[in-house]
Amino acid sequence: MKVLLPALLMITVIGAASAQTTGQSSASDHPIYLNPKDMKWDRIVPELGAGSPEITILHVDQKTGATKLMIRVPQNFHVPKHWHTANETHTVVSGTFIMAHDGNREELGAGSFNYVPSKLIHEAWTKPDEGTLLLITVDGPWDVNWVEGPPKGPSN
Q1: Residue 156 falls inside a structural domain
Q2: Cβ proximity of 94 and 109 under 8 Å
Q3: SS3 string of the chain?
Q4: What are 17-62's pLDDT values in tens digits?
Q5: Is residue 151 part of a domain?
Q6: What is the pLDDT of residue 30?
Q7: CATH at 134
Q8: Does residue 96 lie within any of the structural domains?
Q9: What does the mean pLDDT of the chain come to?
Q10: Which one of 2, 44, 142, 156 is least enclosed by Cβ atoms within 10 Å?
Q11: For residue 15, is pLDDT > 80?
Q12: In whole angstroms, what is the distance from residue 67 CA to residue 58 CA?
């Protein structure tokens, strides 16, 4: 089941990508350099206020839609079941990310990597005492398709 949030999220993603490449070509044949102070972060679920995960788009390939982005997930947060149209990778930059799919559950610490095939339903959590910073790549346009609705806030 898709909800309206993915469409709104894509508008945010496209807007963020445009904002961060202003004055530069976002074509794949031009270098892009972003320092943390230059990254524009947007709340993924604005209704959650400061408790929302945040996203910054680093690069979108104009030919394929392949996207590189980062997400900051607050401590004690559950990312409910969802899937993406494109294949997705996660590299944990800091913190711990606990991911689950098909009855499998893995705890990924800083420096860990995983690959999630297109349309695989998965969910994730952060630990009660630490948030997580993720570097994410997708080999096509990035989207989120919530299975049972978007995040509702901190885990119980």
Answers
A1: no
A2: no
A3: CCCHHHHHHHHHHHHHHHHHCCCCCCCCCCCCCCCHHHCCCEECCHHHHHHCCEEEEEEECCCCCCEEEEEEECCCEEEEEEECCCCEEEEEEECCEEEEECCEEEEECCCCEEEECCCCCEEEEECCCCCEEEEEEECCCCCCEECCCCCCCECC
A4: 433 433 334 455 688 899 999 999 999 999 999 999 999 999 999 9
A5: no
A6: 81
A7: 2.60.120.10
A8: yes
A9: 85
A10: 156
A11: no
A12: 8
CA–centroid distance for 117 within its chain: 15
Structural domains in the chain (count): 1
pLDDT at 153: 78
Domain of residue 97: give its range: 4-146
Specify if 107 maps to a domain.
yes
- Between CA 88 and CA 98, with CA 133 as vertex, the angle to 5 degrees is 65
Which residues on neighbouring strands pair with residue 88, listed in sequence order? 116, 138
